[in-house]
Amino acid sequence: xxxxxxxxxQRANLSFIRASxxxxxxxxxxxxxxxxxxxxxxxxxxxxxxxxxYTRLVVSTAARFRNYxxxxxxxxxxxxxxxxxxxxxxxxxxxxxxxxxxxxWIRSAMQDYVLRNWSIVRTGxxxxxxxxxxxxxxxxxxxxxETTGGQLTTEGRSYIAKELKVHARDVxxxxxxxxxxxQSLNATIGEGSEDSWQNLLADQRxxxxxxxxxxxxxxxxxxxxADALGELSLREQTIIRERRLSxxxxxxxxxxxxxxxxxxxxxxxxxxxxxxxxxAILRRVDHPSDLLVEA
Length: 295
Description:
The protein is built from 13 helices and 2 strands; from the N terminus they run H-H-H-H-H-H-H-E-E-H-H-H-H-H-H. By secondary structure, the protein is mainly α. Strands 1-2 form a two-stranded antiparallel sheet.
């Protein structure tokens, strides 16, 4: 949906556009002189003259992005930021016109603004996605005959993917994304309804009864394990705790050095201790399935 400014904002935008179009364009020599005065002497008057002369570039570029439904004034302001960045980085000694150099910065600033604000869901996080976002509509217009019911055909997606050097699957996903719009969960389901969409969302979290049951089951399993560990020798307990009950389990070699035995002996002791633990815990439960933790 296109953004519509209030009358006061429209007047302010129109006044800026008219002032921009009245600014005199610069010749190459004057352009480079102003750029040098700003770069070498920090002459702000030269900077202002250089920037004002090319605000018309900002306006014309902003007009190309109006179809994304964002305020014209905001687009112009973002473009002005890009214009200032261009002035700060421009090298007059290079054989490039400032207008050519500034156009890239202005367009880049507006594209970043569009991507940040077109949707609350971030779109175009990679260079390929960014290119796809800003070129899909243009390429779709060229392939008007390749669409069915407003959707691209498989051949059409393949053509666009090849043109932009992306996967056809990315084209399909971006097509769906551009065809949708943000919807508020607080919006009512229909006209005259008092229910909102968020009322239909299921809460996937466990209910209080499941939370309490899970806590009690966890405490019971911990008690069974502690009682079973008490039946092991101190050396077996050390091996189980260091190997199985710590975040970063010790290696057989490390435990062997600590206990003064070979790592093969540690492996044998661990195997025997696990067997004892299993038998001890099974004696304490009525059903082996009680030991399983539900995902």
